[in-house]
Specification:
This protein is 36% helix and 20% strand. It is α/β, with parallel strands linked by helices. Helix 10 (235-244) crosses helix 11 (249-256). The chain is globular, with a radius of gyration of 18 Å.
Length: 283
């Protein structure tokens, strides 16, 4: 499937999820109003004290696999960019942390999610927030303009992850930090899962192997790369979303036991690194 076709599938699925949340339901990456194919990836990511005061629809639209705002060590006055910001929960939480002297951007390509995020921003009363329309492969911000990039289970949905990471490197200031939650794979995965668009859109089939993630971050120019598992998925976790994708859960589930994990991915743009160096220019 081409990158443009993949983007269209993702748009449709996450547009439907936004409509579910906007209508007062809980967003589902399956598009059927049930969380079975997304659990346990999307559940229990935020402590109740952290989301106190956050608009309900922002919480309901969360389809992430982690809580990057809790781990990114955001400081007052910093500029933060959330790649694939969805209903805006991580942008709003980031805006609180960086305070009125800082700025939190959210980037999303889905009109329905952007509309929901802007509604949530108005309800939150936060003024240091801006939601941008665009693809994470082509970030509409200038070079060296952001202190921290976060993302919550979105980069794995891209058909061109190398480009996403190069763009992230480009917009980060020297010394800037990448602090994202994503699904990562350890070991070989059955071909049936890689071919399933339902699982790709639902945050699984597009996941990189751990060593691939490290290699791509290094190739983009990042330093101090760390991948820290935050939740490892077992066979029982996988059964529901395998069935939702039309796969034989009994056959496939044992082959993926413990191979998928949510992870916190950290990396730094080294001081003095102003622009990304293309692969052909490396020594």
């Amino acid at each position: 499937m081409s990158e443009s076709n993949l983007q269209e599938v993702v748009k449709q699925k996450y547009g439907a999820a936004a409509k579910q949340a906007a209508a007062g339901g809980v967003a589902s990456c399956c598009g059927d109003g049930e969380l079975s194919c997304c659990d346990p990836i999307t559940r229990d990511l935020y402590e109740s004290s952290q989301i106190e005061g956050v608009p309900e629809k922002a919480v309901a639209a969360s389809l992430g696999c982690g809580n990057p705002t809790a781990l990114a060590q955001l400081q007052p006055g910093e500029t933060v960019l959330d790649l694939g910001s969805g209903g805006g929960i991580d942008v709003l939480l980031s805006a609180r942390r960086v305070g009125p002297t800082g700025k939190a951007y959210g980037l999303d390509m889905t009109d329905e999610m952007l509309a929901l995020a802007r509604e949530n921003q108005q309800k939150s009363g936060l003024s240091n927030v801006e939601f941008l329309k665009g693809a994470i492969e082509n970030i509409p911000l200038p070079d060296n303009s952001v202190d921290v990039i976060i993302s919550n289970c979105v980069i794995n949905l891209s058909g061109d992850k190398d480009r996403v990471l190069r763009e992230a490197f480009r917009v980060l200031r020297p010394g800037g930090r990448l602090a994202i939650s994503d699904v990562v794979v350890r070991g070989e995965v059955p071909a049936e899962i890689r071919k399933s668009m339902e699982l790709w859109v639902g945050c699984v089939a597009g996941a990189l192997e751990e060593y691939e993630y490290r290699d791509k971050l290094f190739s983009a120019g990042f330093e101090s790369i760390e991948i820290e598992p935050t939740r490892v998925y077992k066979v029982e976790d996988a059964r529901d979303f395998l069935k939702a994708a039309g796969l034989d859960a009994e056959k496939v589930a044992p082959a993926i036991d413990g191979k998928f994990m949510s992870a916190f991915v950290r990396a730094v743009k080294g001081a003095g690194r102003g622009r990304v160096v293309g692969p052909s220019c490396r020594s």
